[in-house]
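Data availability (excerpt). The following record was deposited with the supplementary files.
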Amino acid sequence: MSDLSKLESDLVSQIAGAADEAALESVRVSALGKKGSVSELLKGLGAMSPEERKTEGAKINALRDRVSSALDAKKSELKEKAIAAKLAADVADVTLPVRAAPAETGRIHPISQVIDELTAIFADMGFSVAEGPDIETDFYNFTALNFPVGHPAREMHDTFFFPPDANGERKLLRTHTSPVQIRSMQKQKPPIKIIIPGRTYRSDSDQTHTPMFHQVEGLVIDRKSHLGHLKWILAEFCKAFFEVDDVKMRFRPSFFPFTEPSMEVDIQCDRSGGDIKFGQGTDWLEILGCGMVHPNVLRNCGLDPDEYQGFAWGMGIDRIAMLKYGMPDLRPFFEADVRWIEHYGFRPLDFPTLAGGLST
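Predicted structure:
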């Protein structure tokens, strides 16, 4: 009896001193495992007489039950302590500001936003979007657009040329998106109503020019298009884009090799404050160039100028973004400054629509 009492005392002491469930499991195995101290006592019952087996067996089984109960109680205690420790470690300070969701912190670049705005406006007028390669041939970038070889207008485009290929031809980075007009007229029969947003390249860099910039051009080709249609489209575009009820426009004679007649377009504005306000004031600001597609361009695309005519226009996306959203310098558009994009960028889920407002 004294041996069982001592064994029980030792086991209870070990159970009480177990620091974690692993230590407690080690005590259980040493006591109740296949070769544990209590299990060994139970194995010895077979060598006893029936009377001794009855008396000692009851004592050993009672010891085993008490040890099992002590183990279960300690296990429950350790689990509760572990849960309390985890809760203490994972406590959240509800007074801290909530971390913004990715959809709130991410920003759409103003150029991407303005392209979406342009697409929404012109899609409402029935235009589709056309695209073409950034690397072009001299034919598509100049010759097909009525820039003859040696024509001084070619010098107006500070072109990035590639080294000559095996045939001596020098490809180039397109200086405008007009080559897509040629490709579109070659691929599809009129009527054609497209806009062409995209990257363009010229060797120029200052506050309002960068070597890579963005343009959008529009092209309409059919049998009855005329300058009246062009003026209406541009007026509706300016009202929608600058979100004003009315706008006055001024068309001035100009020269572009690919249009005849050619015009520069000014828009009425007010420069009296720090911002440029459209639809009011007495000042004028040049915003785009346009004109009727030159007959030579139509011929170069396989279209008969006696049957078809059309008009085209073009403007800098970066420039109109600066005008609309008050950006003083073009260079930060391409500097990847997170602070700049956080200030001027747009929320990812704020898709521009004519019904909901372009810049809301």
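Summary of structural features: Residues 2-89 form one domain.
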